[in-house]
Predict the structure.
Amino acid sequence: MKNIRLYLVLLLMMVPASGYSLSSAFEGSVYDPGSLKPRDSVLKVKVGDPVPDFHLQAIDGSQVGPGQFRGEKNLVISFIPAAWTPVCSDQWPGYNIARPLFEGFDAVLLGISVDSLATLFSWTRAMNDLWFPVASDFWPHGAVADSFGVLRSDGTAERAIIIVDKQGIIRFIHVSDINIRPELGMIINALGAIE
Amino acid sequence: MAMDARNPGEKLLGIRLETPDSGKVQEYLGLAAKPSFTMDDLDADVAVVEVFSMYCPHCQREAPSINRFYDLLVKRKNPGTSIKLIGIGVGNSQFEVDYFRKTYDVPFPLFADGDFVVHRALGEVRTPYFIVLAREEDRSWRVVMSRPGGIESPEAFLTTIVELTKGEN
C-alpha cells in the first residue's frame, strides 16, 4: 500500500500545474486559451527609469495616469493579459482584500488591461467590484503596454507588475510567466524595499 | 490537464502537508510528525476539507460562515465522532494563506498549496469546494461528500455531515 501511495504522489507531482484555481464566481464565464508562450515581448523600461507618462480612461469615467500620484503615493501598476480568462480572473479579486497591505506602504494600485471599458466594467462587477481604478488601454490598442514593452504580439499584455515611487521612478519590474499569477508577498516585499 | 473531482466512495491517498509551527494547531490535529505529515495522520474520525483561495471572491464572502461552522464543531456536546476542519489554499503561497487567515480571523488550520500538488490530488476543483472524509479501517480516508460552492447554513452543513458519517468511528 505504501508503494502505491508513493507512486500516486509522484504521479501527481509530474502532472503539469494548471497555474490557477478558478473561483466558482466565474463558473462557465471564462474563456480558457490554454497554456500560452510564457513571455512574448521585450521590456522598454528598466528599474531606475522615469515611468512613461500616460492618461487612460478608467471604468469609473475618470482619467488615470502616474502623474496624479507624483509626490503623494507609490504606484503599483498591474498589467493583466485579458479579461474573462482564467488566471486574470484569479488575480485582482485577491488584491481586493489586500488593500491594507498596499496602503500600509502608502501605495495605490492601478489595474490596466487592453480590453474595452465595457468589457472591463462587466468583468470587474463579477469580482464584487474593486477598490482600485481599472483602466482601459484599448485604443490606440495597447499603446501604454507597448510603452513599457509588455505588449504581446497577439495584442494582449503580459502579466506584469511595475512599481513606481513617489518621485515617478520605476523601482520594481516583474513580468510573470503569463500562465502564472504573481505572488502577493513578492509585491508587498518590493513595496517595503522602497521605503 | 483538468482532472475530475473526487467522488463519494473514492479513497484519498498520499496527500502530504507541512506540519504547522503552531503547537495549538498541532494539538488540534493530533500531529507529531515533522516537517510534514500525511492526511492519514490526522487525529479525527471525520475530516472536512475546505478548498479555497485568497483570490476567490466567494471564499472571501464565505469566510465568516466557515468560521461559524468551526465554532459549531468545537462546541458540539457528546459528539460521538470527532470531526476536524482544515483549509487548503490552492495556488496560494504561505504569505497569501496567512493574509487570508488574518483578514478573516480564521481559527482553524489553513495550509498553503502553492504548487497545486494537493489541488491536483483533489481533482482540480473550483473554489470554494468541500470534501468530507471518513476513516477506513487502514486509517486512510474515504470521500463521503464532495461538493462545490459555499455552505450557506453552517448548522445545516453540520447536520448533513453528522447524518452522512453516523457510525464512522
User: Anything to note?
Assistant: Chain B has one domain: 44-164.
